[in-house]
Amino acid sequence: MNKKICDFFKLKGIPYAEASDPNNRLLSICDAEDLLSIAINEQIAIIGADVYEKKRDGRYSIEKTFDLAWSCDCNDGEDITYKSYFDRSIEMAKIGLCGVRNRMKQDNNQLYVNYVLPNN
């Protein structure tokens, strides 16, 4: 994974599973927007994201936020290294974060974003 993104995850985000990959973290909306900026600058596609809500027992759940998740599929003959895929994935991430912000305002709660990023 990209060094800038790895460094970002060392400082930001919330681990939400015991055996979780250190680069697989929940991000506040502000941190999710910051990571999106890094992805844009580093030309790293955002494959998708799940959105979590913190439950009263301290766990995180997608039960009420599954409709906010998104993924960017490759078109025929395309893979995640294509510029067209990168551009589309970034646009989807921007739209997705807007949806998260709107839901947070509507429900007056805090939601967390877990991006799916390329492994390399």
Question: How would you describe this protein?
Answer:
The chain has 120 residues and is α+β, with helices and mostly antiparallel strands. The chain contains three helices and four strands. The chain has helices spanning 3-11, 29-42, 83-107; strands at 48-54, 60-61, 70-71, 111-116. Strands 1, 2, 3 and 4 form a four-stranded antiparallel sheet that branches. A hairpin with a 5-residue loop joins β1 and β2 (60-61). α2 packs antiparallel against α3 (83-107). The chain is globular, with a radius of gyration of 14 Å. The model has no long low-confidence stretch (mean pLDDT 91).
| Beta content | 5-15%
Q: What is the mean pLDDT? A: 91
Alpha-carbon Rg, integer: 14 Å
Distance separating the two termini: 5 Å
Secondary-structure element pattern, one letter each: HHEEEHE
Strand count, sense and barrel status of the largest sheet are: 4 strands, antiparallel
Q: What structural class do the secondary elements suggest? A: alpha+beta
Number of DSSP strands? Answer: 4
Proportion in helices: 40-55%
Unreliable parts: none
Shape assignment: globular
Number of helices: 3
Features:
single chain; 120 residues; alpha+beta; four-stranded antiparallel β-sheet; 4 strands; 14% strand
Brief characterization of the structure:
This protein is α+β, with helices and mostly antiparallel strands and 120 residues long. It is built from three helices and four strands, in the order H-H-E-E-E-H-E.
